[in-house]
Structure formats: structure tokens, C-alpha cells
Amino acid sequence: MDENSLSLSLKALADPVRLRILALLPDEANCEHGNNVSQLAMKLDMPQPSISHHLKILRSAEFVDYQKMCRDVFYWRNAQKLSEVCLTLGESLNFDLRESGKPIAKPDARIEEQHPSI
Amino acid sequence: MDENSLSLSLKALADPVRLRILALLPDEANCEHGNNVSQLAMKLDMPQPSISHHLKILRSAEFVDYQKMCRDVFYWRNAQKLSEVCLTLGESLNFDLRESGKPIAKPDARIEEQHPSI
DNA sequence: CTTATGTATTGACGTATTTGAATATGTCAA
DNA sequence: TTGACATATTCAAATACGTCAATACATAAG
């Protein structure tokens, strides 16, 4: 995943409504009443078309899967894709999040003491 | 860190130029020639004012620190802040990235088999 | 003081994004 | 068929964003 596609994924996550939606959804296929679009709109106190809009963006980024049942559409998270983005961001920044959250040591990251004005 | 501030941090990261800038910068204070603004502009083949603009956004989000020396301004990453955002994103999504990149088990994430239309 | 260099800011421009209102589509119940 | 409900789409308005050109500011050199 290069910087361009990573930035597109991050853009899809970089909205408070979409983060709240993701926090409300389960990680597995789950067609309980609470996970359809109207219930999300109610929980988040926002118009249903607005939630549909944000779900469309999350679908395009493959951060959610969904299933239509009768009149309802139930959504859940694509946990694999979400964790992939977290880890890819870490890689892109040379972090290894699975270990310590610390940057990977870079031997050339020393102070250049010979700068003319010091 | 709530969804609003997390989304602001993610927005600051959600740009390919800014991701490339961060990938080029060291993790420690480092005033080598390669880490000033003109050199970044040259490496990324973009006008210097554009790089300054993106650096300002990264500064506002506290993703970079910098030091002015003579006519140059040297930048480096705020590794603590960057890893904090990665981990906070994981927390917000109920992932524990330090362990497995897998979602934290939620006992209520079962399929609702009693849906009227199944 | 004048000139050259490095960086930041400003303003203009085109594009993208967010939101709300209205509406369309699809499904079920009566 | 009619009405009610759930969801998606479209459109318009407002806002935000990325890029570029011009310029301002700061520092250093001569």
C-alpha cells in the first residue's frame, strides 16, 4: 500500500461521524436490530441520509461489510481491513506497533554537530 | 482523545505529500542538510511554499518538531505523538495493535438468528 | 547597504467534502 | 392497491482543502 492509497484510507477514517459509526458496529456479521441504518441514525442523532452517505464512504474504503435483509441493511466492520490500515500507517512511519509503539531504530538519526551556526 | 480530536489528527495524516514528508524525516532532532525545507522540496519535487504549507499542518497536529538554525529550519518527527495516534485509532476501533492486530473479543457479537425474514 | 538564500505567508483558483432537503427505490402490511 | 417503513440517491449551498504565484520576512555574505 503506497502513500496514495494509504492517504485515501485515512481520509475515509478522518471524520468524527464515521469513527463513531465504526465504534458502534460489531466485528462480525450481525443482524441484530441495533446495527441497521435507522438505528445508527438514531444513536448518533443525525438524519438517515447523512448516515447512508457516510456508510457509502466506509463501503468504498472497504471498512464495512453489509447485508440486506427484508427492509433493513445491517452493517459490520471489516476488521481485517481496519487493522491493515493501522499497521500500514505504522509501517509507513517506520513504527512497529505490534511490539512497542516505538520507532524502529535508524542508525543515521544522529545530530549533525558541525552546523556552521552552532 | 475523543473522536473529534482523533479525526483532526487523521485528517492531518490523510494526504500523500504529508505522508511522504513524514517518511523522509528522522525521529530525533537532526540538523543534517537533508532535513531542511528546501531539501524536502527538492526530494519531493514540489515548490517550497507547498512544502511549508504541509509542514505547518503537521506542526499544528504536533506530528513534527523543528528548529531554526541560521537560515535553515530543520524538521523531525514527533514519534511519541505519531505512535499515540496509531494506538488511539486502534483503541477507538477496539483493536489491540500491540498484540495481534485483531479485534478485542466482544461477547455480544453473535448473529441474531431470529430475524423475521430469515 | 545591497544582494542572495531559506522559509513563511497571502491570495486566488479549482476541486472536494459535508450537510440538509427532497425524492426515489424497495419491501412489507393491511 | 394503498400506506408505512427502511434505505439510497440526487441536488444545492456552504465550507474546507491543495496548489500555485507572488511576496514578505529573516539571516547571512559581500
Structural notes for this entry:
The structure is a homodimer of 118-residue chains. Helix content of chain A is 47%, strand content 10%. Chain A is mainly alpha-helical and 118 residues long. At the A-B interface, α1, α2 and α5 of A face α1, α2 and α5 of B. Chain A binds a DNA duplex (30 and 30 nucleotides) through residues 11, 15, 17, 36-38, 46-56, 68, 70-73, 117.
**Which segments of chain A are poorly predicted (pLDDT under 50) over 5 or more consecutive residues?**
107-118
State the total count of DSSP E strands of chain A: 2
Shape of chain A: elongated
Strand percentage of chain A lies at: 5-15%
Q: Could you say which structural class the secondary elements and strand pairing of chain A correspond to? A: mainly alpha
Q: How would you sum up the major sheet of chain A? A: 2 strands, antiparallel
The oligomeric state of the chains shown is homodimer
Mean pLDDT of chain A: 84
Helix content of chain A: 40-55%
Q: Order of strands in the sheet with the most strands of chain A?
A: 1-2
SSE series of chain A: HHHHEEH
Radius of gyration of chain A: 20 Å
Q: How far is the N terminus from the C terminus of chain A? A: 41 Å
Count every helix of chain A, treating DSSP H or I runs of 4 or more residues as helices.
5
